[in-house]
Structure prediction request, 318 residues.
Amino acid sequence: MGVVVEAENLVKTYPGKVTLYNFSLKINEGEVFGLLGPNGSGKSTFIRILTGLENADSGKMQLFGKTPGKENRKKIGVAPQENSVYSMLTCMENLLYFGSLYGVTGKKATEKAEALLSGLGLSDKKNVQAGFLSGGMRRRLNLACALMHDPKLIILDEPTTGLDPATRRRMWKTVINIMKESKATMLLTTHYMEEAEALCQKIAFVNEGQVVAEGRPSELKRMAGREMAKLRSIPGEYRKLEPLLMKIKGIENITVTEHGIVVESDDVSTKIAAVTRVFEKKKEKIIELSVSKPSLEDVFLKLTGAQLKEAVKVEIKK
Ligand SMILES: Nc1ncnc2c1ncn2[C@@H]1O[C@H](COP(=O)(O)OP(=O)(O)O)[C@@H](O)[C@H]1O
Ligand SMILES: [Mg+2]
Prediction:
């Protein structure tokens, strides 16, 4: 499997501000890769450097195994954070315009535009000016414009920020469909952990211009600790249950307290049936059961002390 993007120790400063600091990551071919971090953490800056809109002060970057340049950047399709569609142009006209920038013209362009409009649920808006579309539709059109030239790397910068929850979910479906149909690699940024979790196979946590952790969502979540189930029962002779519970495959730890029993496992929800059978066998009536799973937010908090949604002040690091 090839490596599509490899960034090593990128540094980017603006006057009085370090925006990226030793920023490193690797994106493999075919992956949906998420940059997850709070506002101002440097996600869009990284994308601007990757796409050639700005240069890094130092560090190395490889795109499709080569130094980024005009040729390999042609294989990128970007849907920027701020919609780049023209409000006075119709959906079709926008698509044809963006296609033409990449040399997609004529019948091929019209066919591709029709296919994208239908795939993104915009067929009936084909001849409507972009300025008259709803926020969610304009966002989908912005995405479609990035796909006219069948890019090998699709970049979505905050695809759902500012959209209401229902429209956000609709956008997720669209993104999943695109990934099913194309063999492209995708890089998306978000500050919504649910979004990263719903869409991405790999996630890099970004905080104050640095990648603080990278991995599959399940791997990252393990960093915050195991999943737990808490149970309370009557009469509550938990010591008798302990040895039987320990025999259940995949149970890593049992803690008995006065108020109940805590069962830890990497995948605790699949163990609940076996756990409750032990309680039944010992004539313990379960009166309380709760399951807690560490979230990506928990991991981020543990690693950085910061919350995903709060804007983090970027200080100058020397
Ligand atoms: N052209 C610029 N001049 C000065 N500061 C900038 C510029 N572009 C971005 N920044 C700053 O860099 C930081 C990272 O911004 P950005 O990459 O947009 O973050 P994100 O996309 O993660 O929200 C922010 O503090 C922002 O104010
Ligand atoms: Mg941004």
